[in-house]
Amino acid sequence: MNREQPMPVTMLFEAELDVLELLDYKPIMSKGYQCIIHCHTISEDCIIKDILEATERAPDGTRVTRKMPNYVKSFAKLIVRI
Q: Which pLDDT tens digit goes with each residue over 29-56?
């Protein structure tokens, strides 16, 4: 990269997230969820645009993967558009 070709900027990207414990007053994450993303030394406000895939633990202890779920709960692994 040089001054004539600066680093490209984006407003939308796909990320793999590990959701820890959600807040008591916001126990479900869905499209439009407002949150803070922490990546190394930076933290930024963001909005979840789409949940593309979610892997959650079923009541019997097995892992269940769903494509395009409407919502997820705490302790899920997600692929989202932010």
A: 999 999 888 888 989 899 999 999 999 9
Q: Which of 68, 63, 66 is nearest to 49 (CA)?
A: 68
Q: Under 8 Å CB-to-CB from 82, ≥6 apart: which residues?
A: 12, 13, 14, 15, 37, 46, 47, 48, 49
Number of domains making up the chain: 1
Instruction: Please check whether residue 64 lies inside any domain of the structure.
Output: yes
Residue 56 within a domain: yes
Q: Strand ranges (DSSP E) for 1-82?
A: 14-18, 29-30, 34-39, 42-47, 50-57, 63-67, 71-72, 77-81
Q: Is residue 52 situated within a structural domain?
A: yes
Whether the predicted model's global pTM rises above the 0.85 cut = no
